[in-house]
Amino acid sequence: MSYGVSAALQGAVYQKLAADTALGALVGAAIYDRPPSGALPPTYVSLGPEDVRNRADKDGYGALHMFTVSVVTEAAGFQSAKEVAAAISDCLVDADLTLSRGRLVYLNFDRAVARRVGKGETRRIDLKFRARVEDN
């Protein structure tokens, strides 16, 4: 196994999301690896947790990265959050990402969880993706 491609994958995912015009029309530049301190925009995207599993084989090192991209909004209802989530999914599914280390084999949508947070004023959708990478 190699965890060496993790930073390269995260950087490529972030760059892909930040460059997407459809997503940008919905959230502007509010795409974060770590949300900034202080006031946050009413809707933003945050790169979240990651779980990585060994996928090495006789041909070389590899890993399966299961990572989360979250949509957080104060907008009433789930409609606007779902529009942002759809733009993220459209942007990332089967994306041809160039990594600074290693190679992306595939990037697929796995599942999503939509929920109210706290007293119900905030909506959150956690999109889970699976990325298979090689590090040869």
List the helices and strands and how they pair.
Blueprint: H1 6-19, H2 21-27, E1 31-32, E2 43-54, E3 62-73, H3 79-92, E4 103-117, E5 122-134
Parallel strand pairs: 1-2
Antiparallel strand pairs: 2-3, 3-5, 4-5
Low-confidence sequence ranges: none
- Strand tally, please? 5
Strand order of the largest sheet: 1-2-3-5-4
Tell me the structural class. Answer: alpha+beta
Protein architecture, described:
The structure is a single chain. The chain has 136 residues and is an alpha+beta fold. It has a single domain (6-77, 89-134), classed as STM4215-like. It is built from 3 helices and 5 strands, in the order ααβββαββ. The protein has a 5-stranded mixed beta sheet. α2 (21-27) runs antiparallel to α3 (79-92). The protein is elongated, with a radius of gyration of 15 Å. The chain starts with 5 loop residues before the first helix and ends with a strand. It holds the Pfam family Tail_completion_gp17. This is DUF3168 domain-containing protein. It comes from Halocynthiibacter halioticoli.
